[in-house]
Amino acid sequence: MMLIFGLMLLLQTAACVERNCRFNQSDPCNTALGDKLYLLMVQDAGKYNLTIKKRINNTQDGPVCRIKKNIIKQKECDLYNNRPEVTVNNGTLIINYVIRADAGNYTLKLVSSDGIESSKYLQVNVEAPSVTLIILGCFAVILIVLAAIAYYIYKKKNRLKPTPNVESATTDPHTNKNVKKEQDLHYGEVTFANRNVQQRPSKTQEDCVYAQVQAH
Q1: Which residues form the signal peptide (predicted)?
Q2: Of 16, 2, 37, 1, nearest to 136 (Cα)?
């Protein structure tokens, strides 16, 4: 069971890699399908009202998501609609499972409590999982299947293995002694019977001699 648990943990690790990016970083944020992505928006999110916009092109804005006091406003978040795996924690947007739609150019608008506005930008590139991770994941799945089959065979053999009869084993010596005594007793009876048979003719002869003596 520990082996299966370890293999499942290995598979989960191979399929999910954590990536860390932040708005206004100089280079694009590169991630892959299925990764867990951390996007740092601002250090102290409690002081700002945040708005994330995904740009379709350089002139047109796409879906929007508004965040206030570290809470996503569900009714004002078309960007991550019907995606419970997207959360916000301490000024960081967390995408637990990256999909193709997460790729694109983003604008983060910050409005402080005193009304000051500022903007940050980030480009997110979503790639296919690496071949190494795919092979590792497949290998882990094969090991899990083999371990499950081996465990099943082991349990089946133990189930079919006959259990020794302890009661019979403990009483067998006494039973053998009793049988031996009965055999000896039976043999003695037979021997005793044979002696009687051998002695009877002698008794008959004596009677005959005694009778002849009386007749004279």
Answers
A1: 1-16
A2: 16
